Amino acid sequence: MSLLEVSGLTVRFGRRQVVAIDDVSFTLGEQERLGIIGESGSGKTVTALALMGLLPENAAVTGSVRVRGQETLGLGEAEYAKLRGDTLSMVFQEPMTALDPTMRVGRQVAEVLLLHARNTSGNSRQRVIEMLRRVGLADAERIADSYPHQLSGGQRQRVCVAMALINSPDLVICDEPTTALDVTVQARVLKVLDEMLDAEHTACLFISHDLAVVSQVCSHVLVMLDGRIVESGPIHRIFATPSHPYTKGLVATAQLDKVAPGSPLPTVADFYTRAGATR
Amino acid sequence: MAAAARKLGVFALSLLLASVLIFAVLNALPGSVAHTILGVDATPEAVAALEARLGLDRPWPVRYVEWMAGMLTGDFGTSPLNGHSVLELIGPGIPVTAWLVGLGIIGSILIALPLGMVAALRRRSWEGVAISAAAELGMAVPVFWGGIILALVFAIELRWLPPNGYVPFTTDAGEWLRHMVLPVGTLALVQAAVLTRYVRSAFIEVLTQDYYRTARALGWTPLRALFRHGVRNAAMSLVTVVGLQLSASLVGAIVVERVFNLHGLGSILIDNVFQRDIAVVQATVMLLVLAVLVINLVVDLSYGLIDPRQRGRR
Amino acid sequence: MRKIQLYTGLALIALVIAAGLVSLVWTPFDPIRVTADRLLDPGWPHLLGTDAMGIDIISRLLIGARYCLIVGIISVSLAAIAGVPMGVLAGLSGARSGWVDEVVMRVNDVVYAFPALLLAMLLAAVAGASTVTAMVAIGVATIPAFARVARAATLEVAASDFVLAARAAGTTKWSIAVRHVFPNIAPVVGVQASVGFAMAILAEAALSYLGLGTPRGTPTWGGMLRDAQDVWYTQPVQALWPGLAIALAVLGFNLLGDGLRDVLDPRLREVR
Predict the structure, then answer these.
(1) Contacts of A149 in chain B (CB under 8 A)
(2) Structure ipTM over 0.90, yes or no
(3) Contacting residues of B for A163, CB less than 8 Å apart
(4) Which among A91, A186, B22, B314 is placed 20 to 30 Å from B43, CA to CA?
(5) Which domains does chain C have, with CATH numbers?
(6) What is the mean pLDDT of residues C239-255?
């Protein structure tokens, strides 16, 4: 039994039943790391939110999502809430807005811990500080007593990682967790995430538009286009022999260091254009 | 602290302007005090004599400064009509109005907060739509009509409560409560209609924020996530609204006092408007405007206490 | 579907206007003359009965619609004519000479601290209670609302590219105000006028109820409620009709305001 089994997942929005993702199926084992890659609007985030059960009310979800064999589609709100933050967890794209501006950071992390606490023994403050330190916030005491607006984007995203991982979830979904960060900060946050996933034995679904970023964290990757999975496999295989033209474009743009001097920079559109799209 | 000092400055300036405005309207417009007392067809000599006796023949800046100096030292002047001290005339009304406004606003918050929350969370299902519609209807109800209807039902038909009158808290707490239920209920219900709409908007705003989604993703149920983040974040916009509501409540209280025949500041003010007792009107309006301005100041200052982002800017 | 608010509002307002217009040429009975048929129950020919003076209630309600509309139109116009240019002036000068903006908005804040009711009391204390003092008081008290709305909208328009372009092309500030700002803030002012109208009706009714507006004898909805309260032990239903009339008129203008806002600014749909 895999940790996560998704089969035939389809999401339609609104009264006109606009299809956002269509028949998405994949499995993820314990401690595995799977990247989902695609451009904005390809259905990556909808997939993530569908797995978390956080789609808006006007979304119709069909298919099957099993977490450790338990079907989660149609699960009651209270049941689902118990899974979230404990078994399943998530890190979002925008660290600037993902934290409540009116609460001290330490308290926000501590509350996640207490929300799912099985044994309330032990000092939650101590565990929060320790967790903040582990995600690379050296001055953890001061950070815990800060408000979000007093922290940098990278620090906030580390706090978000700490919040997502403090209950040692089985699976954490990261939705473009470093896209909003500077390139240098990005690399450091990815490294911390990588270490933390190992230490907590947590599986990861990593969503990005950037194959280069995904390759730093994941071993396998799904390529999504217009709500469908068009290609999947081990990341080294995708890099070596991409089969779908869209994937070829992604691979080329992820390896700009291999572009011959003097030749134009490649874009995805050089390899793949949608039917009916004009350039 | 510079911001707070600035706000205090604005407050003092507003108070000054307001006092000038009140004084100007009451003293500069046609129909002077003496004419009012003596009637339209009083002889000019009689008017002049009365003005001299009341000190009204002196230039208005002198009278303004005198009035202001008096107000600041707690001397609200004397009524030219009956010679009573203004403070003695309006003093007993202050607790009545204060209770009415204070309890009314608390009541409206207690009604509007849960209703607004449900209306926001369930905005696409029937509960939310029903609450919004009820609030829209409630906003159209004039406060005095609401009071009359409540009195008709609970006092005149069912006879559960007295339809009018006031008993001081210190005289008989039980009777005080029985007499306050209808006026306070009226004010609270009518104010709650407006407040519910604002609460709903403020909470919908919170529901669309990323931190709300973060909380959901980490295991909070919708209602608990809304409590955790909503109350604090919505508080910032709601403090403004409650401030406005407090000023509106003061006005509502004036009308409600009339419906239920309570002798608060509003009733006293209206009686003296009819009698054209300028000194009492002047002092009472100034007191009410002072209350409004103080409420605004407190609202302004409290932003910094609620929102940590504002604190750093001081 | 969302336009249901707009249409309901328009229908209610049309009803009030129709009642007011009809009252100009016809009422079922004399709306002012005292008769011996006092306090009749609803029935025929007095469908809603008669009041303590023996006057037909429907006739008085029809006349009341007229007063409610007159007070609304005059006080809202007064407020808009004074408030909108003030707000535009403050908004346009805001960027460059901050003190004009500061002075205009401070004065507005002070007026804002005077609810219509308090102003009306001040005026009534010196000039006596009348329809005119009520209209002036409501109008003046509503100026700040218009000024604020106009200022905010002006700031937005003034920052837009086409105004910058006009400025770069050498157009003067006043010509920009006339050609670009006024047309562009018209929708917002329209919404405010509608909501202001509703508040004016409520304020007028409260003033008449308190005896601080249109004098007793002239049929106004607020005044009718005061009369109804005198007979609430014997004729409780009399308190129903005028209140209902006020509520429907206010609801009409509030719904119109909400509906206009939705039509004009689709972004607000989710929030309202």
Answers:
(1) 308-309, 312
(2) no
(3) 214, 218
(4) B22
(5) 72-244 (1.10.3720.10)
(6) 93
